[in-house]
C-alpha cells in the first residue's frame, strides 16, 4: 500500500514538478543551522550598531571629510616623516596598556599650508574607523571668542550655558584637536593662558590625548602660551612634528616675473 508521501511524489512527477525531500534533519544538524542563523543575525546587528556609533562620532567631530590619508600628497620629506609618525601613533591604539598608561600629545608646527591640519584630520578619521575613538576638532581662537562672550551677562542667547556644554565636550572627548593655536597672537592674555593650561591638565589627569596645531616655532609657542600652559604640554608624552615643506595651497594671484614688477603706488593716468 502506497504511503501519502509516495502518492504526492507520483503526482509531482506527473505534473513535472520536482520531488521534495522531506527527510527530517537530525537534532545536531538542526542545531548547527539555527546557531549559524543566530550568529549571522548577531553579526548584522553588531555591524549596524557600529555604523551608528561611528556616524555619531563623526557627527560631533566637525572634521573635514577631505582630510584623509587617501587624499594626502606625500611629496616632501617632512610629510613622509609625519605620515610615518602618524601611523605609529594610530597603531599604538591597538595596545590597551598603552592607551591606559597616560596622556599623549602630537604637536604639529610649521608655516601655513604645509599639511598639518590635513594629517591631524586623517589621524582622526582612521582612529574613528578602526577604534571608534571619539574626536573633536576645534580652532582655539573660536573657543576663546566663545569664552569671552560667555561673560556677557546681558546676552539673551544662553551663550554661557552653550560654552559650559562645549567645555565639557573638550574634557570628555578621547582625542581633542586644537588648530590655529595662538594664530596671529604673539602672547595670549593671561586668563586665556590659564584657561588653556587648566584644560590640558584636566585632560592629562584623565588620560586623554591631544593634537595641537600651530604656525609658531617651539620657542615662539612657549612665549605665546606662557610658562604655566607650556608646562602642561611638557607633562604629556609628546611627539613634536615640524612641517617645513612647500605650501600646498593654490596661489590666488599669479606671480609676476621680476622684470615686469612695478614698485610703489601707480595712480590711474587720464589721457
Automatic annotation (TrEMBL):
Biological processes annotated in GO: DNA replication
Domain of life: Bacteria
Record-annotated IstB-like ATP-binding domain positions: 81-226
Pfam families on file: IstB_IS21
UniProt cross-references to InterPro entries, sorted A to Z: IstB_ATP-bd (IPR002611), P-loop_NTPase (IPR027417)
GO MF entries: ATP binding
Stated name of the protein: AAA family ATPase
